[in-house]
């Protein structure tokens, strides 16, 4: 059996672009391995370079086709690309590609592309927590662009999108799509809107409706009072790669805006705050859990049962006595 | 407008058995009112007297009919009874009786009976947390018996059952019921098993199967090595009140066993430990949440973004600096 490389060696290999090292590090993240703390520390100096782009949208709008077309476009520019396909509702994940991700196999043999499906197995904090860690791995591995494609809808989508520098909201022509977007809250999170399948009936009205809603909802965004970002609404037929170049141009423009206005640093700091809080919360949860069988907790519980104190006062005492 | 009575006055009125005071206190619990801490403290000296009985079982076994029959039986003995109908899956609750709880209206005008439906609205910790608090209200209000009827199935049922001194598992004749019970883990939580609708085909085999499974699974239970409790399997036709007297006798016997062996105190202490932990956890969560906008968190986040530290190390620093 081959020797298992240590974390430092894995990170070194990942930085050299070795796919197996990248895959193993992401597995550590996904499985919440005991090594995760060491992995995160080892990655810290190398993160923050990649442009992290989130792709979100309802099922059927062509997310995986669009992701594949974006990968091809970035590869044509000789950029290294990482793809995370995140499915908050699925317990399945790993190296195996999911069914509708079959188009991504165009890129499966390209050494400049890392593709990974992630699911929520094992993770206490869920994918909202694991995703930024996996992004760090791909970032440290030298990816210029990391595409985070969220499968599924709703709150988890919004949370996962929160891990991106730039969020692309995909729609397809169809009745009430704009209204649905507003309801799902994705109008607020979109930096670039893409109406895919734009060769279909109704594309014009979907674009018009979106532009109208964006104008109505526009206001100064973080770090942008003097230089506001107006989210563009673009058209693509991703299956024929039509309009994809323009999407990449808009993404580059947004990245430039983020850097110019300081919004990039602001967004990333807010994100880091959330991450630190989530980890701190997990640490405290563990400390509380460790109190099972502790004499202090037992004696407080006995006093509650006897009516000498109440659970709130007992919790105050317990928290005050926590050795942090 | 009438003056709103303070917590101390409400608790006093509840102890005198005034239904509106009881209802308001339970609303405070259910809504996680800011007054909840005060309410819990005011109730502490008066709790621990009632026999808390949990009723659980799959939909269709006749839980609400059985609850109603048990209420009638206890009332025939001039005992005061509280009923909590807990539905972890429903956002609806309050004074209004749920549809299938219509039989409980037999007791709606009886001043010796408090009936309350509870749902999970607003509660951070969910009903598993709110239920013991509501039980305290009914206990302090002088209920001799509190019946906690859980609507729904699965883990939430097991958690809510954890709030009871004695847990009744209801089943109805039918293929594979015993196996289902084993799968759902209710074989472990049942102190008294009741096969309702015992006039139907298959009742004998359900009873036999259950007795067999209980014998297989029997072992010493908490506080009972020298004096073990063997869960009885009883038959009822609750709609005709057949067998209900025997169920009440078994419940009394179990209560006697709990007191005799010290298991009652042991169970209640374990329960109080869980409650204290949950509240302590909530307090810490609030402290962490209060750090939004805090300079320490902001500076740690900036260092994570700059790659000077990683989120785990930052979380350690944050937790170490928490003023508890």
CATH homologous superfamily placement of the domain at 47-261 in chain A: P-loop containing nucleotide triphosphate hydrolases
Question: Secondary-structure element order of chain A, as H and E?
Answer: HHHEHEEHEHEHHEHEHHHH
Shape of chain A: globular
Count of strand segments of chain A? 7
Q: In short, what is this structure?
A:
In chain A, 48% of the residues lie in helices and 12% in strands. With 324 residues, the first copy, chain A, is an alpha/beta fold.
Summarize the topology.
Two copies of one chain form a homodimer.
Chain A: H1 7-15, H2 19-30, H3 36-43, E1 51-56, H4 63-76, E2 81-87, E3 113-119, H5 127-140, E4 145-150, H6 155-161, E5 166-171, H7 177-184, H8 186-189, E6 192-195, H9 203-217, E7 233-235, H10 244-261, H11 263-289, H12 295-305, H13 311-320
Parallel strand pairs in A: 1-4, 1-5, 2-3, 2-4, 5-6, 6-7
Helix pairs in contact in A: 1-2, 2-5, 4-10, 12-13
What does the model show?
The structure is a homodimer of 324-residue chains. Chain A has 13 helices and 7 strands. Chain A is an alpha/beta fold and 324 residues long. Chain A has a domain at 47-261: 3-Layer(aba) Sandwich (Rossmann fold), CATH 3.40.50. Chain A has a 7-stranded parallel β-sheet with strand order 3-2-4-1-5-6-7, sandwiched between helices. In chain A, helix 2 (19-30) packs antiparallel against helix 5 (127-140). Chain A is globular and about 75 Å long. Chains A and B meet through helix 3, helix 11, helix 12 and helix 13 of A and helix 3, helix 11, helix 12 and helix 13 of B.
């Amino acid at each position: 059996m081959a020797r298992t490389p240590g974390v430092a060696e894995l990170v070194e290999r990942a930085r050299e672009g070795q796919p197996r090292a990248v895959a193993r590090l992401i597995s550590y993240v996904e499985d919440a391995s005991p090594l995760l703390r060491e992995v995160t520390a080892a990655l810290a100096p190398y993160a923050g370079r990649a442009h992290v782009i989130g792709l979100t949208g309802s099922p059927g709008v062509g997310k995986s086709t669009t992701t594949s077309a974006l990968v091809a476009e970035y590869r044509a520019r000789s950029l290294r690309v990482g793809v995370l396909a995140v499915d908050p509702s699925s317990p399945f994940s790993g190296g195996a590609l999911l069914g509708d991700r079959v188009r991504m196999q165009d890129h499966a043999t390209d050494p400049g592309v890392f593709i990974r499906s992630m699911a929520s197995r094992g993770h206490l904090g869920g994918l909202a927590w694991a995703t930024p860690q996996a992004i760090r791995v791909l970032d440290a591995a030298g990816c210029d662009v990391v595409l985070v494609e969220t499968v599924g809808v709703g709150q988890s989508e919004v949370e996962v999108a929160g891990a991106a520098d730039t969020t692309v909201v995909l729609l397809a022509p169809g009745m009430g799509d704009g209204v649905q977007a507003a309801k799902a809250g994705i109008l607020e999170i979109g930096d670039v809107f893409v109406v895919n399948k734009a060769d279909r009936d109704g594309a014009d009205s979907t674009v018009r409706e979106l532009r109208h809603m964006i104008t109505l909802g526009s206001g100064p965004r973080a770090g942008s009072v003097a230089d506001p970002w107006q989210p563009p609404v673009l058209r693509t037929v991703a299956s024929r790669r039509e309009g994809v170049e323009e999407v990449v141009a808009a993404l580059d423009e947004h990245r430039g805006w983020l850097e110019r206005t300081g919004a990039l640093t602001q967004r990333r700091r807010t994100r880091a705050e959330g991450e630190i809080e989530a980890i701190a919360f997990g640490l405290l949860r563990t400390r509380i859990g460790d109190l099972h069988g502790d004499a202090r907790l037992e004696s407080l519980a006995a006093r509650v049962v006897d009516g000498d104190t109440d659970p709130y006062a007992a919790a105050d005492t317990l928290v005050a006595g926590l050795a942090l």
